[in-house]
Specification:
alpha+beta; Signal recognition particle alu RNA binding heterodimer, srp9/1; 4 strands; globular
Length: 79
């Protein structure tokens, strides 16, 4: 599933490796998803007021949240 998410980020990003969009997951609302090409990791970022930022790596997400992200990206990509 991670490979498919990376593929969707690369296609939708058109040359960038980060998509700015909201993902309403079980642990909160994340505001972007990023693929780090150098270490092949997918990060979700939650921005807040001020300089606060929370980043969570793909492997640390619950299985249901991974599936939710996958479904959202696929539904946008193929509609």
């Amino acid at each position: 599933m991670k490979r498919e998410v990376i593929k969707a980020i690369r296609i939708m990003g058109i040359g960038t490796t980060e998509l700015i969009m909201d993902f309403n997951l079980s642990i909160g609302v994340f505001n972007s998803i990023e693929w780090s090409k150098s270490n092949n990791k997918v990060w979700l970022h939650m921005f807040s007021i001020g300089d606060f930022q929370l980043s969570v790596e793909w492997s640390d997400l619950p299985k249901d949240d991974k599936l939710e992200i996958y479904v959202i990206l696929r539904s946008i990509l193929y509609n």
